[in-house]
Design a protein that fits this description.
Layout: H1 2-18, H2 40-47, H3 73-79, H4 81-96, H5 99-115, H6 122-125, H7 129-138, H8 144-167, H9 179-195, H10 198-215, H11 223-228, H12 231-250, H13 266-277, H14 292-299, H15 315-322, H16 329-335
Organism: Dickeya dadantii (strain 3937)
GO molecular function: lyase activity
InterPro entries: Alginate_lyase_dom, Chondroitin_lyas
């Protein structure tokens, strides 16, 4: 049945292409990143390699707070790879003009949106950024039914998270102030941008500033560092905030220097981390963590939960920041000579 749907969608996409739905950039052309864009062959190669022969849509995903092989961790981890693949399909359409990729994306969007039930757990759902990017890049080219279905889903996601954040403004529990909240801010800002909704974007900006107030000190140190004693969690806290700032930028807003009550901003947080990213300072990870789960992961042999922090894990963060200020480019290139492919989605 799914194969029939896929072939039907492919035929629709080819017809749309013939009707004149074409991309506005060529692969290999640098649009916004100070790097060479992925080649057409690289984009088509990524689009030709799905994580699984069919979409892996699930009604529920759960990874947060569990270890590999516990509960539904493994199946959830595998399924969420679909979201990055959706972004790859959108890039293949936008940057390489591949109609089959657009058609395949419609199948993936339909399958996931019809199957999945939002949990509003931001750690389990943070990977939906791939789906959001894919919709935003292709919304004008998708079949009308798919476009409307996806729009309703993203509206439910964005408003649902905002309502929960509003209800918990006075909640002092960690998950409403730590990296969890940063991932909520990312999802609502990306959702608002994809929906092109000024009202939702204004609410997202308020949430962003509240997170600066709750999570970032005046010197740029984030709350998660004091709790976890790990730069891993500094990056995990700042990456979603950087993604939120990029989404807001696409709507004409500049949040890089947006300040909290003590003058803190994403820029000050990036400056705090920069000596570690540049290798001037080093840090022994999780040595004094206050979170039991960190110790359990170390004991289970999960990579990255002991030893010195590897600066290269901040490469995506500083490449993202380089889109906001070219001053971060030197650090980004030092960490990785090329940006992650998914970041090209921010150019559209």
């Amino acid at each position: 049945m799914r194969m029939t749907m896929l072939m039907s969608a492919v035929r629709w996409g080819l017809g749309a292409l013939a009707a004149g739905v074409m991309t506005s950039a060529q692969a290999g052309e640098s649009r916004c990143l100070a790097a060479t864009a992925p080649s057409k062959s690289a984009l088509l190669s990524a689009a030709s390699r799905p994580p699984s022969p069919q979409p892996q849509a699930l009604p529920v995903m759960h990874i947060e707070g569990t270890l590999p092989h516990q509960g539904i961790y493994d199946i959830s981890y595998a399924a969420r790879r679909d979201f990055g693949y959706m972004r790859d399909l959108a890039l293949a359409w936008r940057m390489a003009g591949d109609a089959a990729s657009l058609s395949r994306l419609a199948v993936y969007l339909d399958d996931w949106i019809k199957t999945y039930r939002l949990s509003f757990n931001p750690i389990d759902e943070t990977s939906f950024d791939g789906l959001i990017d894919a919709y935003r890049m292709t919304r004008n080219d998708l079949p009308e039914a798919t476009r409307e279905r996806a729009r309703r889903f993203l509206n439910d996601l964005t408003t649902g998270y905002l309502q929960r954040m509003q209800a918990h403004q006075q909640d002092k529990r960690g998950t409403w102030n730590n990296n969890w909240q940063s991932h909520r801010v990312k999802l609502v800002t990306m959702g608002a941008a994809a929906l092109d909704d000024p009202r939702l974007m204004a609410a997202a900006q308020e949430a962003f500033v509240r997170q600066l107030n709750a999570n970032v000190r005046a010197d740029g140190e984030v709350l998660d560092f004091s709790q976890r004693d790990a730069l891993h969690y500094v990056v995990y806290d700042l990456e979603p905030l950087a993604r939120a700032v990029l989404a807001a930028r696409a709507q004409g807003h500049d949040w890089l220097d947006l300040k909290g009550r003590d003058g803190q901003s994403l820029r000050t947080a990036l400056a705090w981390l920069k000596p570690y990213a540049d290798g001037v300072k080093t840090h022994e990870e999780f040595a004094r963590t206050t979170v039991r789960f960190d110790i359990e992961r170390r004991q289970a042999g999960v990579a990255g939960f002991d030893g010195l922090w590897p600066p290269k894990t901040a490469s995506a963060l500083y490449w993202s920041a380089s889109l906001l200020d070219a001053g971060y480019l030197e650090t980004a290139r030092k960490l990785n000579a090329t940006p992650p492919r998914w970041l090209w989605a921010a150019c559209w």
